[in-house]
Amino acid sequence: MPVSGHRRLTLIVLIGLFLRAGVMLSAPERLLDDRDTYIGLATGIAEGRGFSIPGTDQPTAYRPVLYPLVLSIGIRWAPALWIAAINLTAAATTIVLTWLLARRLSFGDRGALVAAGLVAVDPLLVLYAAYPMTETFFTALVALLLVTAFPAGPALTRPRAAVVGALFGLTALSRPSVWAFGGLWAGLSVAHALWTRTRSFDNGSRLPVTNWAIVAGTSLLVVAPWGIRNWMVFGRPILMTTHGGYTILLGNNEAFYKEVVAQPLGTVWDGSQGPGQAAWVDGLHAEMEAAGLETDLERDRFMSRRAWQTIREHPQLFVRASLLRLLRFWNIVPSGPAADAVPTAIRWSVGFGYGVYWLLALAGVWHALRSRDVRWWTLVLLVVSFSLVHTLYWSNARMRAPVMPAVAVLAAWAVDRLVSRRQNGSVSLNANDEAGR
Predict the structure, then answer these.
(1) Where, by residue number, does the polypeptide cross the bilayer (predicted)?
(2) What DSSP element (H or E) covers 266?
(3) What is the pLDDT of residue 393?
(4) Local structure of 241: helix, strand or coil
(5) Does pLDDT of 351 surpass 80?
């Protein structure tokens, strides 16, 4: 890569950091807005109470463990500064890794810089870098996983397969929804290896079937301490969290179906069509307390059973709710109470930008599906797997953050192709003009 290319990448990273730092400084209280309780969990670890319900000594497995562990390192001395440092570092890393991911897929300088630029200025990624949530941190891990799994050399060796497995384990400890991608990815790679009878990717980036045992083994080694801890605490080797029951019930309960799903598209669960989400949550907790459900595991099982009961009793509304969740996952316009503070012109500008972005990404998906390179298929599989997970579980636009580096690469391919065709057309016209003189 020429020096000018490095300078442009550095400029893109600086722009991305400037935008995120600007959002942080415009409303610094966001850095301590602990709506997902990660600060509370990290504080408990730092104070020696272990991974426990904030403010208590009661063990929990309600949230994934990795992000709170990282937060706990500096959460007591300068919480806002430490959160900002982690998220800005993760954001810069993601931008660079997106560029590197595009280069691994044989992009030229222009296409790789476009991919990095899309991640740098993505409004959703910019906004949520200002919150103590897993979006920014987890997205960096996913990007690192993909770059590591797509080597620049001729083969994915067994040592590299072990690194891929370790990285996958870390991503699973950061957000368990990645397990769906892991299973589909392994299935795709093994099926392709068997189908081609070469046990290699067509582009020479070999991941033999036997190497998946290494990936799986190292993944389990990384996740094992979390599972063993939960086995000791709850009597069950939980490798994910006890948050799944609440997440699936939140999007599959009779109140949500009645007040949102059965209403016109765009209706928000704000109490305008019934008691509202807060009233439902209060009622749910009161019901569980009355039933004597105290531990995470008991409550998780209760909520999961209740969700599946609702799904069985209302299959048509479940289908409508699933489509609604998919729309929310890929929503292009800010919505909900938070969007009320956004000027209309900015809101629709963001919507127009995302609309064009999605069209470009779809062109990239078409290229990926026609490609014989399994790495392109893997990018599409990442996007599909997260989309499918959130058609069942609660969904909103921030849930798509981890797939945005892949989406950026897909869209950048389309941009690069369009620019190349236009330049080639201009060259042809100029050549014809010269010939006519």
Answers:
(1) 80-101, 113-131, 137-157, 178-197, 209-228, 345-369, 376-395
(2) none
(3) 93
(4) coil
(5) yes
